[in-house]
Design brief:
mainly alpha; 2 helices
């Protein structure tokens, strides 16, 4: 069984975008978690900076994901505009 990209292009592109958004969000949170743990260990605190940095990771990840979604929707609008201009529906 071989994956036919031409036949499943829309599905594959949508799956790519979903995976990119999920991994971006998770990466931001995990990265900030480990920075917070490192600072807590260095200052010998009990999770204060871990919580702060997790919140910053969620906010930063949400910001990046929002920008990615806006970029994809702008590309879709441009593509739809070009298709309509060229007579393709």
């Amino acid at each position: 069984m071989v994956f036919n990209y031409k036949k499943n292009r829309v599905w594959a592109e949508s799956f790519h975008i979903i995976m990119q958004i999920g991994l971006t969000m998770a990466g931001c949170i995990v990265f900030c978690f480990f920075i917070g743990r490192w600072i807590d260990g260095w200052l010998e605190l009990k999770g204060f900076f871990t919580v702060i940095f997790i919140i910053l990771g969620v906010a930063g990840g949400a910001n990046v994901v929002y920008r990615q979604i806006m970029e994809v929707t702008e590309e879709d609008k441009k593509k739809a505009g070009n298709d309509a201009k060229n007579g393709r529906d």
